[in-house]
Design a protein that fits this description.
globular, eight-stranded mixed sheet, 34% helix, binds iron/sulfur cluster, TIM Barrel, 2 domains, 547 residues, 15 strands, Alpha-Beta Plaits, five-stranded antiparallel sheet, alpha/beta
Length: 547
């Protein structure tokens, strides 16, 4: 689909190349130093190619290729060659990751920068790029003891059309230093990567905390407590003489995408009704084909709301037909079962013996509605009553487990005591039965991290998680035996790493079909400070507490 033609209202131009600005879109952005490609040279190429605003794609592609080639030849002062300036820019890209955008890949070349981001609603691409450029220009000029223009005023952006386009762009970004003769392999270049793979840690002081602060010059960007940069958590494991490596894979957790009928405050996926990222049938077919070659016994479907995926029923039917898959889990938000159009979903799930793990953060209406939205408590109760009528929570073959998570910046209380309270309250007031309660710690990422930050609680919460580190929880962490994949088939150690973009790599990003299921044991697990969320207190996993 060419969005230039189907959505002309979303395209606009700043006089050089057309831009596409759309919330939740994945965008590849390139911006460069002001002296990297002379303006009159670009004007000459434009004339030669006959390219005008909004005109044919071929001329635009050729124009971009000429610019890229010229950039890679390393013209101009190339200030980004200097480690302190590259650190500065890398820190700026990382700083608002997960808040204004999701950083998917980046590469800082000597005279230009490539970034791949998923935009967040309320943060237009132009504002994001302006914030990066404005802050780094002032800080870099200060470090260089110079004044004047630093960045070229324009930037290029490309809207990512599909999975193939995405893979090509990531490949291009990672390989740019190799292509330009600056590194032998992408891993050798210190200023590129995907979150969690940054080669160089940014310095630690003086980074602005809002776009307004970008007007203040000075300071080196920092990423205080950046949960993706390996450091404290790895050192804590080391200190306790512990290692964290994979065992044989028992569970395949498939994140079907970000589409959801709710927008909960604690959501680590940033899911919502407007999200477009969902798993497609071709990806499902590749997962099914891969699963056939394994003896994985459990498939755990999460989201978003998996039931909203157009091919959800197709996927369930095909999974059920795989003889080695004994358990299929649907992580259900309950309210979807009473949404118009989904009235027969509970029956479908029961008919296929799907185990349900349902979010229910409290048995008190006010707490549930505060965390998940007005009316969610009543809809959840109705959803559970429908499931009970079908035998869920009552027949041995129809498992119904509930998930509790705190509605504030604290750790879950004792899971067993809480389960007793839940069972008593839900039975007494609503005649509801369920099997187990899983108490899960809120992870300091995505929407919950923003909530913590906006309420001035992020640092205290991180300190609480760190101070509650429990070495006994490490042995049972879910990343040892669960493989997590995203809606495009990307592979991660867990759903949290997935939301932080910590995709497995082997010189290039890896997808499920690149993985040999028999060769995963003892593989290293990608860690960050968010892992403290899994080891705090009694530990936390998708199956509740760990110890
Ligand atoms: S927490 Fe679950 S139900 Fe709530 S928005 Fe996120 S995916 Fe949807
Ligand atoms: S967040 Fe938890 S499950 Fe994921 S890698 Fe870290 S410790 Fe393992």
């Amino acid at each position: 689909m060419n969005l230039h033609h189907t959505h002309p209202e979303l395209w606009h131009s700043r006089g050089f190349v057309p831009h596409f600005d759309k919330p939740d879109a994945i965008q590849a952005v390139t911006f460069r130093l002001h002296d990297s490609v002379p303006v009159d040279l670009i004007a000459r190429w434009r004339e030669e190619l006959g390219w005008k605003e909004g005109s044919n794609d071929e001329a635009l592609i050729e124009l971009r290729q000429r610019i890229s080639k010229y950039e890679d030849a390393g013209h101009g002062e190339c200030w980004l060659k200097r480690p302190e300036i590259a650190d500065l820019v890398q820190g700026a890209l990382l700083h608002f990751d997960d808040e204004r955008y999701r950083l998917l890949a980046w590469c800082i070349m000597p005279n230009h920068v490539h970034v791949l981001i998923e935009c967040r609603e309320d943060w237009p691409l132009a504002d994001i790029v302006q914030a990066w450029k404005s802050f780094t220009a002032k800080a870099a000029n200060k470090l260089l003891n110079r004044t004047g223009t630093f960045w070229f005023r324009e930037y290029h952006d490309r809207f990512i059309r599909d999975e193939k386009h995405f893979a090509n762009v990531v490949e291009y970004i990672n390989n740019n230093p190799v292509k330009a003769g600056l590194a032998r392999s992408p891993e050798k270049w210190p200023y590129s990567g995907t979150p969690g793979t940054a080669g160089i840690l940014p310095a630690s002081e003086g980074f602005p905390t809002s776009s307004g602060d970008f007007d203040e010059a000075g300071g080196t960007p920092a990423v205080p407590g950046d949960p993706r940069v390996p450091g404290d958590f790895s050192r804590t494991l080391q200190f306790h003489g512990l290692t964290l490596r994979r065992r044989s894979t028992q569970i395949l957790q498939v994140n079907t995408g970000k589409l959801c009928n709710l927008t909960c405050m604690h959501c680590h996926v940033n899911a919502g009704p407007k999200r477009k990222e969902i798993i497609t049938r071709p990806v499902m077919d590749r997962i099914l084909a891969w699963l056939e070659t394994t003896d994985i016994h459990t498939v755990d479907l999460t989201g978003g709301a998996p039931e909203m995926i157009p091919d959800f029923r197709y996927f369930i039917e095909k999974l059920r037909a795989l003889p080695q898959v004994k358990t299929i889990i649907d992580r259900c938000n309950l309210t979807i079962l009473v949404e118009p159009g989904y009235e027969d979903m509970a029956e479908f799930l029961a008919g296929h013996r799907i185990a349900i793990v349902a979010s229910m953060p409290c048995y008190e209406p006010a707490n549930v509605n505060a965390q998940r939205g007005e009316g969610v408590f009543d809809a959840s109760i109705r959803g559970m009553q429908i499931l009970n009528q079908l035998g869920y929570g009552r027949l041995p073959s129809l498992q119904l487990d509930l998930v509790y998570n705190p509605n504030g910046a604290f750790l879950p209380p004792d899971q067993r005591e809480l389960e007793t309270d839940y069972k008593r309250e839900l039975k007494e007031h609503f005649d509801i039965d369920f099997n187990r309660l899983f108490a899960i710690t809120n992870m300091p990422i995505a929407r919950y991290k923003s909530w913590l930050k906006n309420n001035g609680k992020l640092e205290d919460y991180m300190a609480l998680l760190r101070n509650s580190f429990n070495p006994a929880a490490v042995d049972g962490l879910m990343c040892r035996d669960t493989l997590s994949i995203g809606w495009m088939g990307e592979v991660y150690d867990c759903d949290f790493n997935q939301q932080l973009g910590m995709q497995w790599r082997n010189g290039r990003p890896l997808f499920l079909w690149d993985i040999d299921p028999s060769g995963l044991e003892n593989r290293e697990i990608a860690l960050g400070d968010h892992c403290f969320g899994c080891t705090a207190g009694r530990g936390s996993s998708c199956q509740g507490t760990v110890v």
